[in-house]
Design a protein that fits this description.
The structure is a homodimer. Chain A is α/β, with parallel strands linked by helices. Helix content of chain A is 34%, strand content 27%. Chain A is built from eleven helices and 14 strands. Chains A, B: Homodimer.
Chain lengths: 329, 329
């Protein structure tokens, strides 16, 4: 059996995670990493893998079955998505929720025109969490959805804290509020405000001589990012930040709480949760499973853009249909 | 838009649950209930629904889009599955895990020969739990699976207790052991024996003058059912059994605990759980969502037997593709 030949576009945390994920999936192999940086500045962990200037990607059209786009959603993917889908089967983790419909349309046009298959917005949210929200609301049409994120590092919020005057470095954790999670889990169907669902915890390294009270006030009053939340600010040393807060854990919960029965008196809770030591590595593992699906969909003539909602779960597995039935049903 | 016309075969707890589930799904309508009992002895909760002798089902070939088989896996479905799949699109909840491959084969042959679509073994285990086991092991190829059932009533074990001499009535709950669940949730990847995962709790009404110590010993030593477990026996009155133990709650947990990274040092936990006030009603709601999928698969010419692993999630929803992207991704 031929291995699925994979290319990585963008060698950041997720790109590196895809590289290690490929080692766990014996039916896949890494062919090349594509980068905007100087290729000679990058040393991969996989012997024999080419590092190529992203401008030369087109030359690999016949050598790569699926290109995994590991760039960011703000500026990289809006450009790369349709560009690469015109040349390759692609997987990406485009996660700007509000712009997914437009992104889907663009990638779909490019992929369909060149008989390629693109699975977009793959990861855990959007991704696994989307699947759980959709599945559970189809099963329990009368009910409420709840999504909680964390405990985990939010890059956007960490960046926002770092922009505050007097802040040298910072990490922000999004923390789901236990009481709210428990209330949902116990079928109370609460109405929860933004403030009641998550709190924001910041670990801040202040510049020498900076006014800590002002930093704290500036963070807590920042609109959109913090003003609507309970925010806790801890001042720590640079060493403490490095030794205790340099990992990238994350996680979250998706709940559906719904009722059934002739008088809808019976309550049911569906709960899905993840607890991740490394957000980028887990995301990368999801991407590689969907790369397998993209290769298979394309070989069956199923072209254009897809989402996680469109792909049968069996396409993510290396196992035969008979083994899936025996092993999992 | 035409509604999906549904027939129910077998009007027990699950059949009644399907009837109420149909009320929650505006794109479905109940046409008839098919029974082996005297049709006149059955009063449905839905006005205008026919109650028909199961022998006359063939007459409804043109009136029903999907037949939902609500009989048992021991004797009903092995016979009904292929018989009905030769005439109708069907959904069933065949749950004898070891016999699913053979059952799939038989139903597939019948359905494929008559251009019908059958989704078999739908429910929560097999069903949702199967999906979670497969999905999470595709994402985390290096890891361990854990399934816990309960707290919930096991009919098979309740029946076994009722057969013990001196027992008038009884209910058995399967209870996952908290410490074991917590250990898995915390990424300890424990090896768990049967006894360490679940305990069995029995509520027993003894016949007057019966030897309670002997009943308890007989239950606890019963091979296959109880001997391998920690078993707790409570003696209660008939009234207490009726008022406190006549509901049919159930639930359970599926975990995948897996590692990623260059030295596989990062651990990830995927957890899926359900907590159900009514096992048959929840199962029925899953069946109805898959009835929608079966109707659509059939209209697209996708014939034969399928499992939950073969059906894209989007097929379970009434929403358009654009609305699914907007609402769930």
């Amino acid at each position: 059996m031929n291995k699925i030949r994979i290319g990585i576009v963008g060698y950041g945390n997720v790109g590196k995670g895809v590289e290690t994920a490929i080692r766990q999936n014996a039916d896949t192999e890494l062919i090349a990493v594509f980068t905007r940086r100087n290729p000679e500045s990058i040393v991969t962990k996989t012997p024999g893998v080419k590092v190529v200037d992203i401008k030369d990607a087109a030359k690999f059209k016949n050598d790569i079955d699926v290109m995994i786009l590991c760039g960011g959603s703000a500026t990289d993917l809006p450009k790369q998505g349709s560009e690469f889908a015109a040349m390759f089967n692609i997987i990406d983790s485009f996660d700007t929720h509000a712009k997914i419909p437009e992104y889907f349309e663009n990638v779909n046009n490019a992929a369909a025109a060149s008989n390629k298959t693109a699975v977009i917005s793959v990861g855990w949210d959007p991704g696994l969490f989307s699947m759980m929200r959709m599945l559970s609301s189809a099963i329990l049409p009368e009910g409420n959805d709840y999504t909680f994120w964390g405990k985990g590092v939010s890059q956007g919020h960490s960046d926002a804290v770092r922009r505050v005057s007097g802040v040298k470095n910072a990490i922000q954790y999004t923390v789901p509020i236990d009481g709210a999670v428990e209330s949902v889990r116990n079928g109370k169907n609460p109405e929860l405000s933004i403030r009641q669902k998550h709190l924001r915890e910041c670990f801040v390294v202040a510049e020498e001589g900076a006014d800590r009270a002002k930093i704290e006030a500036d963070i807590k009053s920042m609109p959109n990012y913090f003003a609507d939340y309970e925010t806790v600010v801890h001042f720590v040393s640079e060493e403490e930040l490095k030794s205790n807060h340099s990992k990238m854990p994350h996680g979250g919960f998706v709940f559906r709480s719904g009722k059934t029965g002739i008088d809808t008196v019976n309550n049911h809770i569906i709960e899905f949760s993840i607890k991740l030591d490394s957000n980028p590595e887990f995301t990368a593992n999801v991407l590689v499973a969907y790369a397998r699906a993209a290769a298979r969909l394309n070989s069956e003539g199923s072209y254009g853009a897809k989402t996680v909602l469109d792909v049968p779960l069996s396409y993510l597995s290396t196992k035969s249909h008979a083994d899936l039935i025996k092993g999992f049903l």
